[in-house]
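From the shared-data thread, chain only:
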Amino acid sequence: MKGRNKPAVRANAVHHIYQNTRNGYLIFYSVKDYLILFSVISVFARRYDIRILGISLMPDHIHLIVYVQDPYRFRAFIREYTKVFTKMYNRHYRLSGPVFNTPFGCAPKLAHKRIRSAIAYVFNNPVEGRLAVGVEEDRWNFLAYAAEKSPFSEKLRIDRARWELRKALYTVKACRKEGRWLDYTEIGKVTGKLSSRELQQFTDYVIRKYNCIDYQAAISYFESYSKMVIALNANTGSEYDLAEDTYGKDYRCYRPMIRELCFNKGYDTMERVLNLPEADRRRLGQNLINDTGATETEVTKLLRL
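Structure, as tokens:
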């Protein structure tokens, strides 16, 4: 959004919240990035008694559907989770400056039809971004967790899990019980020895433990979960009040580029890549264009050029 005026926030109303990243840079390079932001949002939502009806975490922006009771507490919620996540994120990637643009995008939705449309719009962002075929098939809009505990992993039996996985789950449980969000060091320590299968189980467990989404409130606009999924898959919804320029873009390019850098190019992690000198990142960017068919804009966003 242009300008720095405070967004209009109304008491006792549903709002669509939109936060785009600074310069359109990528924000999510790994599962850790998603889980940490989700845990931070969830902790502050509970701390400030914020009712969230939906969340969608996209590669370069995020959406929330929020019922705002007290505008002051709501602004404190946005301010605090943004500040905490930015500090952790910058420390981890050795970056500086804001992660998100300010002010955040905010549109009150007062009519039942507008609320339904905003809910559909937010949950359908991964579909419009070509990250999923169906609205319930993307992990990072969290819709599938309304119907299943572990929609993206094998059934978890903690009593039969390896010690490494049990230790990771106990750490998450303790953090959640104490009202603490997860951080990069913590996740790195407990997941280092987990298999791919266990990492999927761990991810579903974290989301389940921290999840603050009031699914029943969202579902109430569609009568039932099954009807909601059918409706959302039939209608992507509309956003008339926020000028979002990222809706409908193809985000499929980023995962192959990250795999190319971390595995084929041998950099192991994106932390290493992002801390290369700019000249080296530009060289890698040209290689990515040649090897993956990515555009210059996509490479620029990925490598923060």
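The CA atoms of residues 132 and 138 lie 6 Å apart.
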